[in-house]
Design goal:
Shape: elongated
Strand order of the largest sheet: 1-2
CATH class of the largest domain: Alpha Beta
Order of helices and strands: HEHHEHHHHH
Oligomer: single chain
Largest sheet: 2 strands, parallel
CATH topology of the largest domain: Rossmann fold
CATH superfamily of the largest domain: P-loop containing nucleotide triphosphate hydrolases
């Protein structure tokens, strides 16, 4: 994937659930040191052709893991994205991701009582989109939310 990215003038690699790429398991804890070492080298390495740019984004739900494995030192920026806890935050994310009416946004935001991660909110939105037709109703969204145990 890194070699392919170096072929373009501007590239981006997103490593979602980076802990899974490392075969991390909290029992032990265990992980693949070979994969970790490869990632450390590849993320730090500049593209071999001058003028080419590569942005690498690593996403994890276990931020301390990246620090423990010293992966944070190869990234230039580290951002913490907190769970959404306020109805306005939830509405803002949903407004950007799906065609909800204002009434549906209010109803959904009022029914989410516990903080929810952006990724989970997007997952539920996608589930509701797949189960319904082109539009997503609040009922459909809340049913999917309930099915996810949220």
């Amino acid at each position: 994937m890194f070699q392919d990215s170096w072929k373009s003038p501007l590239s981006m690699i997103i490593i979602d659930d980076i802990e899974r790429c490392l075969d991390y398991t909290p029992i032990g804890p265990r992980f693949s040191n070979q994969v970790l070492q490869a990632l450390l080298v590849l993320i730090k390495k500049n593209p071999p052709v001058e003028g080419r740019k590569l942005m690498v984004i690593g996403i994890t739900s276990i931020p301390h893991l990246l620090e423990d494995m010293e992966l944070t030192r190869v990234f230039n920026v580290s951002l913490h994205v907190p769970d959404l806890s306020e109805p306005d935050e939830i509405k803002k994310v949903l407004k950007e991701t799906a065609p909800f009416s204002e009434a549906d946004l209010e109803r959904i935001a009022d029914n989410i009582k516990e903080p929810i991660g952006v990724k989970k909110l997007l997952m539920v939105t996608e589930m509701a989109r797949q189960e319904g037709d082109a539009s997503i109703s609040a009922d459909n969204f809340l049913a999917c939310l309930s099915n996810c145990g949220l």
